[in-house]
Amino acid sequence: MNRNEIIEKLKSDVINIIFTKVDGSTRSMKATLSQNIVPGEATARATNRSADSAQAVWDTEASGWRSFKWDSIKEVNGVATPNGVSIKG
Predict the structure, then answer these.
(1) CB-based contacts of 34: which residues, under 8 Å, 6+ apart?
(2) For residue 26, what are the CA distances in angstroms to 22, 35, 83?
(3) CA pair distance 87, 89, nearest whole angstrom
(4) Based on the number of CB atoms within 10 Å of its own CB, is 45 exposed (0-12), middle (13-18) or buried (19 or more)?
(5) Neighbouring residues of 25: CB distance < 8 A, sequence distance ≥ 6
(6) Is 89 or 59 the better-scoring residue by pLDDT?
(7) Dihedral of the CA atoms 1, 72, 84, 53 (nearest 10)?
(8) 3-state secondary structure of 10
(9) How far apart are CA 42 and CA 27, in angstroms?
(10) How many CA atoms lie within 13 A of 29 on its CB side?
(11) What is the pTM of this model?
């Protein structure tokens, strides 16, 4: 699974992402970028929130914006990504 595939899934649905946080702990997050799910006022404030190495997403359980680093992803919807996800594609 590559970065573009994950972004497309995020734009259309809620997906489960498991990643390693900066402090070394593991986190599971139900995330989306779907305009049908993210509240309108939150969408308006979300302009340009992602860097090349990280991705801002709407955490549906926390009802707020959170981010993860692409190279820290361990699993997406049950599919293991043992080396993270390449930021190049």
Answers:
(1) 10, 11, 12, 13, 14
(2) 9, 27, 15
(3) 6
(4) exposed
(5) none
(6) 59
(7) 80
(8) helix
(9) 23
(10) 28
(11) 0.84
